[in-house]
Amino acid sequence: MKQLSYREAxxxxxxxxxxxxxxxxxxxxxxxxxxxCFKVTTGLLERFGTHQVIETPVSEEGLxxxxxGAAMMGMRPIVEIMYGDFSTLASDxxxxxxxxxxxxxxxxxxxxxxxxxxxxxxxxxxxQHTQSLEALFTNVPGLKVVYPSTPADAKGLLKSAIRDPxxxxxxxxxxxxxxxxxxxxxxxxxxGVSDIKREGTDVSIIAYGKAVFMALEAASIxxxxxxxxxxxxxxxxxxxxxxxxxxxxKKTGRVVVVHEAPQFGGFSxxxxxxxxxDFEAFQALKAPIARVCGKEMPTPFNKHLEMxxxxxxxxxxxxxxxxxxxxxxKTTPAGKxxxxxxxxxxxxxxxxxx
Length: 354
Known about the structure:
By secondary structure, the protein is α/β, with parallel strands linked by helices. The chain contains 14 helices and 17 strands. The chain has helices at about 5-20, 45-50, 60-70, 85-100, 100-105, 135-140, 150-165, 210-225, 240-250, 270-275, 280-285, 305, 315-320, 340-345, and strands at about 1-5, 25-30, 55, 75-80, 115-120, 145, 170-175, 180, 195-200, 205, 230-235, 235-240, 255-260, 290-295, 325-330, 340, 350-354. The strands form four sheets. A seven-stranded mixed β-sheet has the order 3-2-4-5-7-6-12, sandwiched between helices. A five-stranded mixed β-sheet has the order 9-11-10-13-14, with helices on both faces. A three-stranded antiparallel β-sheet has the order 15-17-16. Strand 6 (about 145), helix 7 and strand 7 (about 170-175) form a beta-alpha-beta unit. Helix 1 (about 5-20) runs parallel beside helix 7, helix 3 runs parallel beside helix 4 (about 85-100) and helix 8 (about 210-225) packs across helix 13. The chain is globular and about 65 Å long.
């Protein structure tokens, strides 16, 4: 194992795949000498040259269109879009051409394209650079959608995405400097397989991307209350690993779904629909499924207001504690046979019976 940042893990995956196959090329704005908007492609131009690192004008629709054509002709482009918000500009070649070409050609033409882009809050980039648009892509047949949280997952999933014959939207959270241990040597992680980041028995928190870290922090806080939390990191939104989700739900009987995108129309709705459509999982539920999502508003530029937009660990803790039917509000001090959770739940007198 070696320690790499999220940024370095993604870069290493691209280096390995570009060295393995010269048909793997990086296409995007400022991906060469500048090293990419978030410095992920630093050093690639010097190592692979202009044959495999292609700088483009500022035209998301144009560069994705070029990449789609290149993929149809046998290349394996990795498109870098500076911010996920700019996907609205690239939506025509990606959604109307890359996603549909295999079907429209009766399987004769595939588009092995990887569409890399960062999403989410935390950089002070305001309303037009901070959205979470993953649900825009998951509703498009023909697109695979991946959203890794850790450096190890990012590297293994990106290598699989590059080798996949289908177009893959590879969403990166903006914690590019976050570090973790990554396996040495060659490895891949299959698309469509989630990961249990923490085992638990009382409640399942289902999340992806940056929200996984919020869920893990909430799980650590809840451990003080003897609530055992299982954290399911989806890693892949489409295809979705429903088997792991349902197994976790059947084990714990309580579910909280967390993501940074707004709740209305968000991907949490699809997760919940998969759970309630399974008879055994639905029967196992001991409480209604809860959602903890981003606020229903564009991201403010003010950093203090921006911090209030995404779910916080304490928001998740509150949602979890509200799933237990023994929870009661009282104005008297905790009596015998009660545990006081007020320091965790954010309520001044939140008591739960043993």
